[in-house]
Amino acid sequence: MVLLLLLLIIYLFFFAIVSIFLFSLFFSVSSQIYRAREGAMKLSPNFFLLFLAPLQPLSIELRHLRLQIESVGHVLYLLMT
Q1: Distance in angstroms (rounded) separating the CA atoms of residues 70 and 67
Q2: 40-63: average pLDDT
Q3: Which pTM does this prediction carry?
């Protein structure tokens, strides 16, 4: 019973850490998209550029997110085994 309670506390702790990380990453990506669109509007008010400008920082952020999720997954796997 105590072991199950301890596992539940550990699970909730890691869930809180991962959810805070994803929440902060969401705001980071959304602010970068907003800044990229704002910069594209200043350069050229072309409708096509408004949607192309955010793709580069977003792809870098998504690659970074994938690496961080993989590292969190490895840590969770090591903790579970």
Answers
A1: 5
A2: 60
A3: 0.38
